[in-house]
Known about the structure:
Blueprint: E1 3-7, E2 10-13, E3 18-25, E4 33-39, E5 46-52, E6 58-61, E7 69-74, E8 79-84, E9 93-100, E10 112-113, E11 117-122
Parallel strand pairs: 2-11
Antiparallel strand pairs: 1-3, 3-8, 4-5, 4-9, 5-6, 7-8, 9-10, 9-11
Amino acid sequence: QVQLVESGGGLVQAGGSLRLSCVASGRPLGMLDIGWFRQAPGNEREFVAAIRRNPAVITFYADSVRGRSSISRDISKSTVFLQMNNLKPEDTAVYYCAAGSYATMSDRNYDYWGQGTQVTVSS
Length: 123
């Protein structure tokens, strides 16, 4: 069983930055692909970014955040980070990290989910 705990959310003004963290336990982070998703009130959950291990470590992003966000991991800390810059009010949502064996943009490919962290961007 894998447990995921997100942190780092908060209230920020438009144009600001946040760094979200996702700590994984129960399995080594090197054995997991990790994705970040978000869900705003009244909207479906949507893909934000992911990091995949095999055959090489790659990262990919939703069009809405590409160029403003960066996903990375620290194996020694079992932590995946999502750095978000130039935040916009439309980035307001609950952000979830998820773990699976093969990261894609579909939430169906992830087996484990964290409880989420709220990000609110004021205009």
